[in-house]
Design a protein that fits this description.
Number of domains: 2
GO molecular function, one term: enoyl-CoA hydratase activity
Protein name: Enoyl-CoA hydratase
InterPro entries: ClpP/crotonase-like_dom_sf, Enoyl-CoA_hydra/iso, Enoyl-CoA_hydra_C
Helix content: 40-55%
Keywords: Lyase
Radius of gyration: 19 Å
Number of helices: 11
Strand order of the largest sheet: 1-2-3-4-6-8-11
Bound molecules: octanoyl-coenzyme A
Largest sheet: 7 strands, mixed
Catalytic activity: a 4-saturated-(3S)-3-hydroxyacyl-CoA = a (3E)-enoyl-CoA + H2O; a (3S)-3-hydroxyacyl-CoA = a (2E)-enoyl-CoA + H2O
CATH superfamily of the largest domain: 2-enoyl-CoA Hydratase, Chain A, domain 1
Distance between the termini: 20 Å
CATH class of the largest domain: Alpha Beta
């Protein structure tokens, strides 16, 4: 299998179906051009693996950092200090594009967070399907301290996850939230001992690959519909998704496997 490295991002197949992506842009994993391009390349590798790699696109991508103390410190403030408005717009668009590509990719994404996840770093994790954190991790959207607001989806994804009041508290103060507090409000899905986030994320990824990927994708779509659609339309989307899974998806195989007391043969 191919292990690949760019200047700021490396990736390798943990097992077939699971691509592990490591951020290592010293000193703080600021989301400059190198990380943006590296994440894009890692997504290419996940969705369209090279011949000889896992053979099929990744079902799960796990994103972590090997820089002690930092998951990612946010948008590259030094870069932003050096550019004019056009450059700022272009930079923001590139950052948003890769964050949105991750959020919309046909796979499940897990952020394994140790150290600080601030600003765009937190927004990157919000674009993941699930977040696992070590007990010493810290979270925040400190943009108001720079005279800015979150610009890579944070104003939209954080309230959907933790509610309006908690999101406003975090964004208006710019304060850092501890991992246990982040877990208590639903910003983090799994809380583990410091240093154990990646191991836990990989265990979770393996569990996820055992279930039906089309069914999981439908779960994500219908749960997201709960935030975007009126109740009746959301329920209609659930009805249509489950019907598709029964007719064209893996529902029949899953049901047959249960009745025949065997493991389902999911793609
Ligand atoms: N960008 C660039 N460099 C950074 C960043 C950053 N976001 N964060 C840290 N660094 C650098 C520091 O400058 C320092 O570099 P050097 O050694 O060369 O001086 C190095 O990383 C280590 O940082 P510190 O010495 O400050 O380390 P501490 O442990 O004392 O503090 C903190 C760590 C708390 C993370 C601190 O560095 C900090 O507050 N960083 C800024 C965090 C922040 O404000 N993030 C939000 C950025 S704005 C944003 O993300 C908006 C996203 C959307 C933008 C879209 C439109 C463009």
């Amino acid at each position: 299998m191919t292990d690949t490295t760019t200047q700021a991002v490396s990736w390798e197949w943990a097992v077939p179906g699971i691509l592990q992506v490591d951020l290592h842009s010293a000193p703080a994993n600021a989301l400059g051009t190198a990380i943006i391009e590296g994440l894009d390349a890692a997504l290419d590798a996940a969705l369209d693996p090279a011949p000889g790699d896992a053979g099929a696109p990744a079902k799960v991508i796990v994103i972590s950092s090997s820089i002690p103390g930092f998951f990612a410190a946010g948008a590259d403030i030094k870069l932003m200090a050096s550019i004019d408005f056009e450059g700022f717009e272009a930079y923001g668009d590139r950052l948003r594009a890769v964050v949105d590509r991750l959020a919309g990719a046909p796979l499940l994404a897990i952020a394994a967070i140790e150290g600080v996840a601030l600003g765009g770093g937190l927004e990157l994790s919000l674009a993941c399907t699930l977040r696992v954190a070590g007990g010493d991790a810290q979270f925040g959207l400190p943009e108001v301290k720079l005279g800015l607001i979150p610009g890579a989806g944070g104003t939209q994804r954080l309230p959907r996850l933790v509610g309006r009041g908690r999101a406003l508290d975090i964004m208006l103060t710019g304060r850092q939230v501890t991992a246990p507090d982040a877990h208590a409000i639903g910003l983090v899905d799994r809380l583990v001992e410091p240093g154990q986030a990646l191991a836990e994320a990989l265990t979770l990824a393996k569990t996820l690959t055992r279930a039906s990927a089309p069914a999981q994708a439908a779960v994500v779509r219908t749960v997201d519909a709960a935030f975007d659609l009126p109740l009746a339309e959301g329920n209609a989307s659930e009805r249509s998704e489950i019907a598709k899974l029964f007719t064209d998806g893996e529902g029949r195989e899953g049901i047959a496997a249960f009745v025949e007391k065997r493991r389902p043969d999911f793609a």
